[in-house]
Amino acid sequence: MLTIHAAPLLLPAGAAPVPDGAVAVDGGRIAALGPYDEVAAAAPGARVRRWPGVLTPGLRQWHAAWLLRRCYHPDPREYDALGELPLWGEDLAALELTETRWSGSVRRGLQRMLGHGTTALAAPGARFTDPLVAQAVARSGLRVVPVTGAPGLLLGDRPDLDPFAEGHDLAGTVHGPLEVGARADLAVFDAEDETALTAKGAASCVATVIEGRLLYRSR
Fold this sequence. Notes:
By secondary structure, the chain is of the alpha/beta class. 28% of the residues lie in helices and 26% in strands. The protein contains 9 helices and 11 strands. The longest helix has 16 residues. The radius of gyration is 18 Å and the shape is elongated. The mean pLDDT is 92.
């Protein structure tokens, strides 16, 4: 079924912003994009999802392996004792982690990446060699891409789930622009424009769509 994702501002990342823009998705591919009225007129009967804020391509996380295997993502039941942020370094070393706890952490880490508009994970050779990570990523629907163009070492003094921490602007943070025929990997953020988005960061994510499937929705 054809689905139209519409928002007050479409940021294709490969073309000019489109006020009251939309992306039509057919299966897992982009069928059309542009002003909502034009996209809707070309797809009568399509299901329409209207989102607040800005509609963009999905984001790319450069340090997925680091965040998934060198950080522990607490279970909500552990928040009182461990907090909500990823634990690493000495805090990670202090934990007694069984394979079951690691498996849960990896799954939660991937869920939190989806909650930051991430649709692509960079890995050498576009593959994860850690079996636990590889299996969880395959089940998550997230796309694995090469590390070509990666900024290098992890920036800052702690891991960051926000791809904007290293990408800085939208063009440097998305895996690729929105184009007809491309994979329908989209993200929606509660921001007025690109300037507001980069200031707020990816934690303002409202929805994440991978190959046309809505895999995360905050509300």
